[in-house]
Amino acid sequence: MTTAAASDHKATGHSLAHAHWLAKAAGLAYSDPATVTAKVGEWGFDRVRHHHTRHTPPFPLQDTQAYTAASDSMIVVAFRGTQPVEIRDWLSDITTPPWPGYGGTGFIHFGFGQALDSVYADVLDAITTLRDNDQTLWITGHSLGGALAMLAGARLYFEDPKLLAGGIYTYGQPRTCDPLLAAAHNKAFAKRMHRFVNNNDIVAQVPPEPLLHHVNALHYIDASGRIRDSMPLLGALVDRVKGLTADALAPARDAIRDHSITKYVDAIGKNL
After folding, report:
1. pLDDT of residue 151
2. Scanning 66, 85, 226, 247, which has the fewest C-beta atoms within 10 Å of its C-beta?
3. In 3D, which of 232, 225, 267 has the Cα closest to residue 27?
């Protein structure tokens, strides 16, 4: 694969080609460090830092993993996700206090706050060290990684608005924050936040409102694989039923199957 085919390091705005490549970058975060280093090298990134910390949320010991890759024109931070059952455990706990939102605005889920906090200093150091040519900065992630990408962008912006020159792309992220922080994020990242949801993806539906909320900028992949930038509520409900009935033998598996990062990469690729 050539560098040009993998990514456009000069990209400054939204395109499906850029979304497709960043979905691949999010998927790569599940790989071991040696694989990550080799692949981003093929993509034209000559410097990479790996981030791995351990922390103890209300559930068993968890890892937060991410990588930061840099070229002369672009820096990408990609957060690793987790399995749907694990993120369900995180989000079903209601005994933990809310974590303060960034910029003194609202709040976020405790588990997400702790996970990001455990790795944030190292990620910030990588960004500031590798950013030696005024590169654009893009943050991406799938599942839990999508939640951390969205929140990392918010924290970076509220601490230094000039730092995040690029945008955020997430795939199958859960709801992350209260309405106050969601509104502040929508304003700060207008046209720079892109949240992809694949039909019945179960993780994108938890936890239910009003416990936590999504930010805007939705790109919805319907049951036929078409990407829609808007979808009326009734139309979305009908489309989700269509997705559930696509597998007559096991319709319930659709919600888990739709969460796969491979499904996101393939669906976006077919829309190019």
Report:
1. 96
2. 85
3. 267
The residue to which tokens 């993120």 are assigned: 87
The residue assigned the tokens 């597998």 is 247
Question: DSSP 3-state assignment of 22?
Answer: helix
Amino acid letter for position 69: A
Listed residue (126, 134, 195, 194) closest to 10, CA to CA: 134
Q: DSSP label at 189?
A: T
d(CA 260, CA 171): 9
pLDDT digits (tens, 9 = 90+) for 157-215: 988 887 777 899 999 999 999 999 999 999 999 999 999 999 989 889 887 787 789 99
CATH class of the 3-270 domain in this structure: alpha beta
Q: Do 6 and 43 touch, CB atoms closer than 8 A?
A: yes
Give residues with Cβ within 8 angstroms of 99, minimum separation 6: 107, 108, 109, 110, 112, 113, 114
Angle between helices 110-130 and 144-159 (to 10 degrees): 60
Q: For the beta carbon of residue 210, count every other beta carbon within 10 angstroms.
A: 9
Classify the C-alpha dihedral 90-259-196-198 as positive or negative. negative
Q: Which residue reads 């924290």 in tokens?
A: 155
Q: CA 122 to CA 120: how far, in whole Å?
A: 5
122 contact partners, CB below 8 Å, separation of at least 6? 49, 51, 53
State the catalytic residues. 143, 201
Q: In the chain, what is the straight-line distance between the N-terminal and C-terminal CA atoms, in Å?
A: 17
